[in-house]
Automatic annotation (TrEMBL):
GO molecular function: D-amino-acid oxidase activity; FAD binding
Span of domain FAD dependent oxidoreductase: 3-351
InterPro entries registered for this protein in UniProt: DAO, FAD-dep_OxRdtase
Name used for this protein in its record: D-amino-acid oxidase
Originating organism: Pichia kudriavzevii
Keyword set, alphabetical order: FAD, Flavoprotein, Oxidoreductase, Signal
Lineage top rank: taxon: Eukaryota
Gene Ontology biological-process entries: D-amino acid catabolic process
Signal peptide residues on this chain, from the entry's feature table: 1-17
Database matches in Pfam families: DAO
Length: 366
C-alpha cells in the first residue's frame, strides 16, 4: 500500500484524493483546516462559496490548460446524469456589450478557443444570431452546453464517493480518512496519515501555500488573492440559463456580471474581480449597481423583487506563471488554479495521478 496525505479540502484537493483512491493500492488521508460540511467557512476557503460552472479561461495558445479543462468538461457531462452529484446541465450564454467591444476589444470579435474544431461541435457552440440579442446593447454573443455546480452538494458528493470506495466507514482498515489539522510545513503532513507514516504528500493548499514555511520564498510571492463578491438570491427572475454579460465600466473596472441559476430555486449573481484585496467588506453600492445593470442589459427578466439570501466574499487563489502541477521529491504540488478550480479540477487531478504513479496522465482525444 502507498500512503498518501492530500493537504487541502478545496475542490482540487478532494478531486485529486478521489482519483488517487480509485487505485486500490493507495491509502488516502485528507488533511485540512475546514471541510465543505462545516456550518461556517472562512473566506480563505473559496470552493464552497464559488459560482462553479465550466467556462474555460485558457488563452488560445495555452494548450496545457485547455487540455486540463477538456477533461473537466467530459467529467461534468457524466456527473450531470447523476442527480446526487449536484451538477446540473445549463445553457451557457455570453454577451459582449458595445462599450466593451469598442473600448477594450477595439472592434474585434473575441471568441474563446473552444469556438472552433471538434470540441466546439461536442459542446454545441454557436454564435447567436442578430435577432437573439439587443443590437443597441450588445455587439455579439454566443452559447454552448454547460453546467452549474451546487458547490456544497458537489463537494460532499466527492467525499461520500471516497467513503464508498474506502471499504469501511471507520478508521480501522479504511483506505480513506479525513483529519482536521493546520500545518505550518508540508513536511509535517507526513506524520498525519491515519495508517502511519505517509509515503507521499500532495499539496493542494491553494492560497494557503504562501503560509507554508517550506514552500520557498520566491514561490510564496507568486501566490495572490483575487477577491470575489457574489449574492445568493431567490430566483424569481425567470432566468434559466447561465448568463454572462461582458461589461465595461471605467469607474468600476473590477466589477462583473454573471448569473448561475441553481436547481434549488437559487440564483447566484455577481461579481467582483479585485486583485490583492483581502477585505471582507461587501460594499452595498455594488449590489445597487449590479441590479441597475441587470435592468439595463437584461430587462426581459424580473429584477424588481430580488431577495438576497446571503452575501458571499471569497478569494480566488491565483498564481503568477499559472498552475503549479509538479513533483518535487516526495511531494506533488497542485495549486494556483485561480478562478478555474472546478473546471480544472478533474484535469489537474488526472495529472496528479500521473505524477504519483510515474505514468503519463491520460489525454483526451482532442
Amino acid at each position: 500500500m502507498v500512503r498518501i496525505v492530500v493537504v487541502g479540502a478545496g475542490v482540487v484537493g478532494l478531486t485529486s484524493a478521489l482519483e488517487l483512491l480509485k487505485d486500490k493500492s493507495n491509502e488516502i488521508t485528507i488533511v485540512a483546516q475546514q471541510f465543505p460540511t462545516d456550518y461556517n467557512h472562512s473566506t480563505i476557503y473559496t470552493s464552497p462559496i464559488a459560482g462553479a460552472n465550466w467556462h474555460s479561461f485558457a488563452p488560445k495558445e495555452d494548450k496545457f490548460t485547455q487540455e486540463i479543462d477538456i477533461v473537466g468538461y467530459y467529467k461534468f457531462k457524466e456527473l450531470s446524469r447523476i442527480p446526487e452529484s449536484g451538477v446540473t446541465s445549463r445553457k451557457e450564454k455570453f454577451y459582449v456589450t458595445l462599450d466593451k467591444f469598442y473600448n477594450v476589444y477595439s472592434g474585434k470579435k473575441m471568441l474563446p478557443w473552444y469556438a472552433h474544431g471538434e470540441f466546439a461541435k461536442l459542446i454545441n457552440f454557436r454564435e447567436l444570431e442578430a435577432g437573439e440579442y439587443s443590437r443597441d446593447k450588445f455587439a455579439y454573443g454566443f452559447e454552448f452546453d454547460g453546467f452549474v455546480i451546487r458547490t456544497s452538494y458537489y463537494m460532499t458528493y466527492l467525499i461520500n464517493e471516497m467513503w464508498r470506495l474506502s471499504g469501511s466507514y471507520e478508521m480501522t482498515n479504511s483506505r480513506f480518512n479525513l483529519r482536521r489539522k493546520s500545518i505550518k510545513k508540508l513536511s509535517d503532513a507526513f506524520d498525519l496519515h491515519h495508517n502511519g507514516k505517509a509515503d507521499l504528500v500532495v499539496n493542494c493548499t491553494g492560497l494557503l501555500a504562501r503560509d507554508l514555511d517550506d514552500i520557498g520564498k520566491i514561490e510564496k510571492t507568486k501566490m495572490y488573492p483575487v477577491r470575489g463578491i457574489v449574492y445568493i438570491v431567490e430566483n424569481n427572475t425567470g432566468m434559466k440559463d447561465n448568463t454572462f454579460v461582458d461589461i465595461f465600466d471605467i469607474e468600476h473596472p473590477d466589477e462583473r456580471m454573471y448569473f448561475m441559476p441553481r436547481r434549488e430555486g437559487e440564483l447566484l449573481i455577481g461579481g467582483v474581480f479585485e486583485e490583492e484585496n483581502e477585505s471582507q467588506y461587501a460594499d452595498p453600492g455594488f449590489l445597487v449597481r449590479l441590479v441597475s445593470r441587470c435592468n439595463k442589459y437584461l430587462p426581459q427578466f424580473d429584477w424588481d423583487n430580488i431577495k438576497v439570501i446571503r452575501t458571499q466574499v471569497g478569494y480566488r487563489p491565483f498564481r503568477k506563471g499559472g498552475y503549479r502541477i509538479e513533483k518535487v521529491g516526495d511531494i506533488v504540488h497542485c495549486y494556483g488554479m485561480g478562478a478555474a478550480g472546478f473546471q480544472s479540477s478533474w484535469g489537474s487531478a488526472n495529472k496528479v495521478v500521473g505524477l504519483v504513479s510515474g505514468s503519463k496522465p491520460i489525454k483526451s482525444k482532442f
